Amino acid sequence: MIDIAVIEHITEVDSTNTELKRRISLMTEMPEYMAITADKQSSGHGRIGRVWSNTDGALLMSVALPTNGLSGKELPMLNYAAALAVFDSISELDSIGNIVSIEIKWPNDILLNGKKVCGILSELVKNAIGEIYAVIGIGINVNADVLPDELLQSASSLKASFGYSIELESFKKVLLKMLLQRTKILISGGREMLLREYKKRCITLNKRIIVHPNFGKSYEAFAVDLDMYGRLLIKNVEDELILLDSADVSIR
Ligand code: BTN
Fold first, then answer.
1. Is the CB–ligand 1 distance for residue 234 below 6 Å?
2. Ligand 1 pocket mutation pick from 21, 23, 45, 212 by most atoms within 8 angstroms of CB
3. Hey, whose CA ends up nearest to atom 2 of ligand 1?
4. Backbone dihedral angles phi then psi of residue 214, each to the nearest 5 degrees
5. E strand or H helix at 37, and its extent?
6. Which class in CATH covers the domain with range 6-201?
7. Is 41 in the pocket of ligand 1 (CB under 6 A)?
8. Are 160 and 146 in contact (CB under 8 A)?
9. pTM score
10. From residue 210, how far is each of 140, 245, 252 by CA, in Å?
11. pLDDT tens, residue by residue, 65-106
12. pLDDT tens for residues 29-46?
């Protein structure tokens, strides 16, 4: 039984995140959780204003939840809760085990055999009486046989990685359940546990990386650790320690 008060499926929408934010901004009361899924988005977007391309048989989902148990500094941890939920739900598909390598690349890309299959974008929105909600958007390339040209080099789908089609509805239910479990743990004070589990699965740590900041030139660094709020602690080539809230990183 999924503990989600409202789940609605829409065939086509501009963006599940945008649609959920629109709805919440007009509401004075909200069920504890709300979720929207769609088959297709006309304006799917990702981090740093990037476009999120449609793929056939994708899982496109946004889940809204209250942020009242969280301080502002802990909000990025929602992305990690979502990344762990995606990681665990994909791991469950690998019933034989170790057929594909599943990894999290900081901050929240999920890679199968080194290629991105999932992106996560969390945003904040106020309802009509000023209460703040988090909207966690998850896009997963599930059953695509062919990916758009712009994704071919760096992305893949679950079907291409595992070699068989995934039953989308049951996968969606498992993911929702895991997402709620993880976010509840976070909201009820489980930040440290979440961070420990995230660190175990994050391939970026202890690696030489290239940082692609949101603005400015890319540079080399070493990924040292995550701080207590999940910011990436890096050491640059001048041996200076820097904390990153957000950026893209590639592993060298
Ligand atoms: C990223 O990798 O930059 C994050 C991509 C997030 C895409 C999902 S798809 C469902 C939800 N709706 C959106 O417009 N974006 C998120």
1. no
2. 45
3. 119
4. -60, -30
5. strand 34-41
6. alpha beta
7. yes
8. no
9. 0.93
10. 25, 15, 7
11. 988 778 878 888 999 999 999 999 999 987 666 678 999 999
12. 888 889 999 999 999 999
